[in-house]
Amino acid sequence: MDTEEEEDVDSEEYSDDDDMSWKVRRSAAKCLESVISTRHELLEEFYKTLSPALILRFKEREENVKSDIFHAYIALLKATRPTDDSSHDPDSMEQVPGPISMLQDQVPEIIKAIQPLMREKSVKTRQDCFLLLRELLNALPGALAKHVDQLMPGITYSLSDKNSTSNMKIDALSFVCCLLQGHNPQVFHPHIQVLVPLVENAVFDPFYKIATEALLVLQQLVKVIRPLNMETNFDFAPFVPQLYNCTLQKLRSPEVDQEVKERAIACMGQIIANMGDVLRTELTTCLPLFMERLRNEVTRLSSVKALTMIAASPLRVNLSPILADVIPTLGSFLRKNQRALKLNSLTLLDTLVINYSPFFNPDLLKTAIQEVPPLLSESDLHVAQLSLVFLTSAAQQQPQAGVYEAILPEVMTLVRSPLLQGTALNCTLKFFQALVQANLPRLSYNFLLEMLMAPVINQQPGQVLHKQAYHSLAKCVAAITLQVPVQAEPVATQLLHDIQDCNTDTYLVFCLLTIGEIGRHFNLSSIEMLPQCILSCFGAQSEDVKAAASHALGAVAVGNLNCYLPFILTEIEAQPKRQYLLLHSLKEVISSLSLSRAGLEQLIPSVPSIWAQLFKHCECSEEGSRNVVAECLGKLVLVLPDELLPGLQQALKSDSALMRTAVVSSIKFTISDQPQPIDPLLRQCIGQFLYALQDPEPSVRRVALVAFNSAVHNKPSLVRDLLPELLPQLYSETKIKKELIREVEMGPFKHTVDDGLDIRKAAFECMYTLLEQGLDRVDIMQFLEHVQAGLKDHYDIKMLTYLMTARLAQLCPTAVLQRLDQFVDPLRATCTLKVKANSVKQEYEKQDELKRSALRAVAALASIPKAGE
């Protein structure tokens, strides 16, 4: 291959008859494809040496060899495709080191080599060109913005050439769609004159797959010609009739394929949404067509989606001719046993209520709202969530349409559900707030307050509310109080009196949580007895009451930091026995205020005093308290990374193992799967914290493994370059260490305790995470060796390694096949093991679970091709 690369003589000087080495070149290309696909850790080297050589050989004479060279380069692009948290903004690529920036530098050479090939007679070559360009866009979004001029002749040729096969046209259209989606609309405006007729011709192609793909491209073209999210000077008006008539013809045609019908509906929806203001006269023809399609069982889902696009358009297209028919029809869809139809119908109803409520009367909307109560169920929280969003909009825009007598009991059932959390809970809170704002008769603040407190006050002995229900009810009370601020202090005061007189733990928990949630939004410092009253609950017998009191104190502090934060910090110092609960209160303060810019502005002045107090307790004797301290430290570092991270680095040098444990553990809480301002700093110093894997103290090594696992799982780019140094330490922790095994005498019996088990579990968990996120940087044979050792370890580790074995059989079957015997023997031993006759029931259950997991691993191994030979 080197000889081929160094030849200066143009390859066209040789005839195919003289060329006897094409098999060698083809084999070399296939070999390179395999190397690229399996050795991702060498990507930078590939871009230095292989990429220029492969680009140079795109001019290969032999069609099959050329195809294999293309596929080798496509493998290189697939290996470069973003897989983690790295940002690949094409405008900032010069700051991104490594393969991505190297690829960007080579894009002009790739286009230069491909451009003439896109007009070759060979269909196979042209298909490979489009395949490569699509993969290039996947690896480097926006990379072709400067090269559209060069690509247009090739696109035109493939779409207009009468000799192009159906697959050729589909590939060309598919690439054009990717091109339009991945670039700024203004890039294509000079070429619209050429693109529209090409795509229009493809729409009327007799082969349905080409027509389907063309309609998808046409829909993208509509967004490009008249983007709604940006201002352009492009004159789109001349193209509107052409786009509209072309799509209308397909929409009306009764004989087209189902997929073409759906795409035509979507395309027309996009045209009306983006260009409806210049199609006012055509709406009288088009909107009734949508109504027809909406009544057709086959096309109703596509029609709902298209109408949602139109209803959400900022052009506010006139839908009044069909609203009277659309809303009852959507209401009937809510009864259908088709989840996607329900979800999309709810979204459309919500959009119509927000944007078009002046154009229909409340009685019309009532027909749809009557169908909502059965959807408010924990069995499908996503449907319930969208139902609540719709009901909230209805309460805000058309409160008279509500059928709240039927809805509220279902909402209350949902509030009591242990599954109601996150977005679904937030939607519930907004619904209650909208009800209070609507100021409807028989739905006053006091009525809703009594209704929300009733499940706790009237709780029967046999009816136990789930813990989550208390949190949900407390948040609901706070949410409605936000709409009537004058009630905040009286309600909180009454709840405090109830706490002092209360005899039941459940009501006590509810009162504390509710005071906390109200205090989160209102300054309750005027209630003098509040902090001491909450603090007195720290001494309760019930753990639930203690946890609720801790949460309440932290939440109340969020409402008035200057008043309550010094109180919490003083109490942490003064009350060692209550330290754990008070630290949880402090964590609540940090977590809540870190969520918003306004909260951060409140928190930042207090960071030095919080930081100093936390460092005093890094070495406290209670592990639970140390863990909370570590979490607080990590969350604080996210607030002021430049100022605080060096403090953690310095503390890492401490002689105290407890201090080092807390510091390394805190790093785990600075790593998330979302981009953070701390990421560039972490990239520079994460190695210092993870090198704690070499610490002499087992406890420090264990938390270092947990931090390593968190980094690999959430942000692999932080540790990818450190793997060669960290993996030997990781593998070292998978081994059984005799010095960590001790015997404990329990009366006449001796019991063996393995202090290294938790560390080994953490190490194997880290290896399991590496399977999904970093296997391309791992020596797989060495990795397998340690997995196989785990197959003979403790029960917990066996369970992990069985999972790993099954996954490895899928990810790297060839490597597993080479060491199959070493997997089979320990698995056979587990499957044939018999439990002792005098063993307890738990031992039998444990062994059965182990055998089931082992058999799943065996089944995965058996599925590898040639495993039975």
Provide structural commentary.
One of its GO terms (biological process) is SCF complex assembly. This protein is mainly alpha-helical and 869 residues long. It has 42 helices and 2 strands. A two-stranded antiparallel sheet has the order 1-2. The longest helix has 22 residues, at 841-862. The chain is globular and about 90 Å long. Residues 1-18 and 84-96 have low confidence and may be disordered.
The gist of it:
The protein is 67% helix and 1% strand. The protein is mainly α.
> What's the average pLDDT?
86
Radius of gyration: 33 Å
Please give the largest β-sheet: 2 strands, antiparallel
CATH names the topology of the domain at 319-443 as: Leucine-rich Repeat Variant
Strand order of the largest sheet: 1-2
- The amount of helix comes to 55-70%
Keywords:
42 helices; mainly alpha; 2 strands; 869 residues; 67% helix; single chain; disordered N terminus; Leucine-rich Repeat Variant; globular
Secondary structure elements and pairings:
Blueprint: H1 2-6, H2 22-38, H3 43-56, H4 63-80, H5 99-114, H6 123-139, H7 148-160, H8 166-181, H9 192-203, H10 208-225, H11 240-252, H12 258-275, H13 283-295, H14 300-312, H15 320-333, H16 339-356, H17 362-369, H18 381-397, H19 404-415, H20 422-438, H21 445-457, H22 467-483, H23 488-501, H24 505-521, H25 530-536, H26 543-559, H27 561-574, H28 579-593, H29 597-603, H30 607-616, H31 623-639, H32 641-651, H33 657-668, H34 679-690, H35 698-714, H36 723-732, E1 741-746, E2 749-754, H37 757-773, H38 780-790, H39 795-811, H40 813-818, H41 820-832, H42 841-862
Antiparallel strand pairs: 1-2
Helix pairs in contact: 2-4, 3-4, 3-5, 4-6, 6-8, 8-10, 9-10, 10-12, 11-12, 12-14, 13-14, 13-15, 14-16, 15-16, 15-17, 16-18, 18-20, 20-22, 21-22, 22-24, 23-24, 24-26, 26-27, 26-28, 27-28, 28-31, 30-31, 31-32, 31-33, 32-34, 33-35, 35-37, 37-39, 39-42, 41-42
